[in-house]
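User: I'll paste a sequence; please echo it back and then give the predicted structure.

Assistant: Echoing your sequence first, then the prediction.
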Amino acid sequence: MKTPLIKFVFLIIVSLVSLNSCSNNNNDDYLITNDTQTQIEGHMKELSWHITKYIDSGNNEISHFTGYNFTFGANNVLTATNGTNTYIGTWSITDSNSNDDS
């Protein structure tokens, strides 16, 4: 279960960074500033999240996450729970130039 959770967190972060980096100019040197990172962190912490679609290598993997709520908390603590099982992990925001394998 840990590997799909890590993949999910990575996909969320990449999606948020990608969505936030869209602009009308063609500046390929876009970097996450401290202000942008603070805004993303704030949005992540506002609500509890759940997965509505998860495809990995062409396979629908949503059943691994059915019923789970994800909370992105303070101090980079990620909690996934379905009322019976609870998993605790960490989360972070990186840009495309970061080593996200740490």
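Residues 19 and 33 are 15 Å apart (CA to CA). The longest helix spans residues 2-20.
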